[in-house]
Amino acid sequence: MALGTKKLDEFFRGILDLDTFLSADDSLNGIQVDNDGSEVTKIAFAVDAGMEVFKRAADAGAGMLFVHHGLFWGSAVRLSGYFRERIKFLLDNNIALYGVHLPLDQHAQFGNCAVLADLLGITEREPFGLYHGHKIGYKGKLSEPLSTEDAAKKITYMKRPPLGVFPFGKKENLTCAVVSGGAAMEAFQAMEEGVDLYVTGEASHTLYHHAQEAGLNIIAGGHYSTEVWGVLRMMEECKLKLNMETEFIDVPTGL
How much is the pLDDT for 23? Predict the structure, then answer.
C-alpha cells in the first residue's frame, strides 16, 4: 500500500494520543519534516533521529522514518552545522520524519512501558510515574514471583546487558513498576508506593543509598533498550493494518 504523509499522520494520531501531551511534552510530536507530497510505500522505524539512522533509512528505500526521539525539543534550533546537514539529507532523499515521544511511552497497548509490563508479566495494572501531570508508566502485581536478575533477562533486547541491576530488596519480587527511558528519579515514587521492583532505562547516583536503605530493587535496562519496544510494536501494527513494507533500524547507543 502507498499512502501520503497526511493519511499516515491520521493513522498514527488515531492510535497515539498526541494532543493530550501538547503541554507536557517538549518534543514536536507528529510530522517533523514532510516530504514533497509523494506517497510513501515503506516506513522505517528507529528509536533516535540522527544521521546514521537517516542514511540507513535512505539505503532501505524508506519514504518515512518513524522515531521515538525526534529532532525538535521545545526550543528554536539554528539550521547550521550538523543540524542543517540532517535536515538537508532528509529533504534531498525525500524522507518524511515522524516523531512520537511521551505518547509512545504511555500508550496502554503500543507504548514502551506497556510492552515492558507485558514482558515482565505485570497484571492488575495501574498508571504510575507522574511526569508533568501525566502518569507515563504502569505498576501492578507480577504474574509469578520473579528475582531481579530474572526480570532483567526478560526485558533484554538482542541479549544486550542492562546498564545496572541493583538487588537492594526482596529476593523474589511480587510487585513491579515500569517507566521507560530516562526516569531514574521516579524511583522515589516507587519507594513511596511500596513496590518491590522498579524498572527504567537509566540509573542515578543520587538514588543509590535511598534505594538501598528503602529496600527497592532497581533495574536500569538502558534508555535505548527500554525504548525499542513501542517502536517495534507500532511497526508491527503498521505492517498489519496498512499492509505496508516496514523495517526496523537498530542503532544502539549502549546508554
Answer: 86
